[in-house]
Amino acid sequence: MSAKRSTDARAAALECLLAVLGGGQSLDAALAEALPALADPRDRGFCQALAYGVLREHRRLGALRDHLLRTPLRRRDHDVALLIELGLYQLLGLEIPAHAAVSQTVALAHGRKKAWAAKLANAVLRRFQREMPQVLAAIDEAPGVRYSVPDWLLARLQTDYPERWLDLLVAQNQRAPMTLRINARAASTPSLPAAQPLAGFADARVLDQAVGLETLPAFAEGAVSVQDAAAQLAADVLDAQAGDRVLDACAAPGGKTAHILERADVNMLALDHDAQRLASVDRNLERLGLSAHSQVGDAGDPSSWWDGERFRRILLDAPCSGSGVIRRHPDIKWLRRERDIAELQRGQQRLLAALWPLLEPGGRLVYATCSVFYAENEAVVSAFMADHDDAQALPLTLPVGHSVGYGQQILTGESGVDGFYYACLQKR
């Protein structure tokens, strides 16, 4: 990698970090804007590795920076603060020569026309090289710093999982595997790079090493999709049969919609409130050779879209905190706020109550989230069950996770999968 290209990749990563931590943009959106400007796939991969890594370690890197600085940075110098974090992460978390990490971080500061920041970054990074063991020992005593989570998230995990919260913190900072879903309707078994089946997950294949989709002909051909194994369980729990009228109430981006259709010839309505996101459902289905009726609409207001005919199966993959997929989306730690959880819970309760009348007697509604928080999962279903005598919670025997009062909770990292919650409710 040339010096120019490596500087360009670092500069792109810094812009992504500023967009997320300064502008509130999602990391996916920030990368979508930044990566096309990097022509070399190696640069794009390096940029992604830097952005993901700094966001995973943001609180810890910030504590390191502040410990090493003799004078705190001004708030307006947010870009310099993140630039130093970028340099520290390279010294701490990437297998690259230390001299390259330092010199390229300094070059990045010069590129922003900040000579003073270049001198400061050089001094901070070189001091870290000299004092690394002592500095790490000084800041790592606090678990919130060591595992780089905001205090509110740490407290919630400790409350919900008093014996397992540390395992969750560790899992959240791990790199997630690349997992594929085999299209059961594919004409032939796809040829894949080194991939392993996952016990209990019929359609899942875990790649030994992540690859670009452009290197997977099977993806373009519709023989495989990218989907974590925990998310693939939605189709199992729903258990839709041929001819069933099925509603995927919050369908975008369409992975679960497609999986259900790959399993059975159902009459599928894919609903989402966001027209742009719903378009991604249509694109996914087209790639896979599947079809569904897609409709823009608020699942919590059926009067605006429902035709009056009840459904045999309803999947409510409810909007949630995403606390179970932080390892894939580390920006969640810094974009989500504690006050968001109560608001999300109210929305989840609203959706569940609104959709229940649309289910026919004997039908099944699956409530799912990619969250590990009690407030978004068991608490929502428990409140619903208390108000609905015609609802029966069916027992689940998933290949991963543990039973709770209603449903089954999967914790991040169990069997290598994402954190998820499932409850299956049948109408009497």
Can you characterise this structure?
Helix content is 47%, strand content 16%. It has 428 residues and is of the alpha/beta class. The strands form two sheets. Strands 5, 6, 7, 8, 9, 10, 11, 12 and 13 form a nine-stranded mixed sheet that branches. A four-stranded antiparallel sheet has the order 2-3-1-4. The protein is globular, with a radius of gyration of 23 Å. The protein starts with a helix and ends with a strand. The model has no long low-confidence stretch (mean pLDDT 96).
List the helices and strands and how they pair.
Blueprint (H helix, E strand, L loop, with lengths): L2 H20 L4 H8 L6 H16 L1 H11 L9 H16 L4 H14 L3 H25 L3 H4 L4 H10 L4 H8 L6 E4 L12 E4 L2 E7 L9 H4 L3 E3 L2 H10 L6 E4 L6 H9 L3 E6 L2 H14 L4 E4 L14 E7 L14 H4 L2 H18 L3 E11 L8 H10 L3 E4 L7 E2 L4 E3 L9 E8 L1
Parallel strand pairs: 5-6, 5-8, 6-7, 8-9
Antiparallel strand pairs: 1-3, 1-4, 2-3, 9-13, 10-13, 11-12, 12-13
Helix pairs in contact: 1-2, 1-3, 1-5, 1-6, 3-5, 4-5, 4-7, 5-6, 5-7, 6-7, 9-10, 12-13, 16-17
Please supply descriptive tags for the structure shown above.
alpha/beta, nine-stranded mixed β-sheet, 428 residues, four-stranded antiparallel β-sheet, 13 strands, 17 helices, Alpha-Beta Plaits, Rossmann fold, 47% helix, N-utilizing Substance Protein B Homolog, Chain A
Low-pLDDT ranges: none
Any idea of the CATH class of the largest domain?
Alpha Beta
| SSE topology string | HHHHHHHHHHEEEHEHEHEHEEHHEHEEEE
Biggest pleated-sheet summary: 9 strands, mixed
CATH topology of the largest domain: Rossmann fold
Radius of gyration: 23 Å
Overall average pLDDT: 96
Helicity, in percent?
A: 40-55%
Q: What distance lies between the first and last C-alpha atoms, to the nearest angstrom? A: 63 Å
Task: Please state the overall shape, judged from the principal axes of the Cα atoms.
Answer: globular
Provide the number of structural domains: 3
Given helix and strand content, the structural type is alpha/beta
Number of helices: 17
- Number of extended strands: 13
**Could you name the CATH homologous superfamily of the largest domain?**
Vaccinia Virus protein VP39
Strand content: 15-25%
What oligomeric arrangement do these chains adopt? single chain
CATH-level-2 architecture of the largest domain: 3-Layer(aba) Sandwich
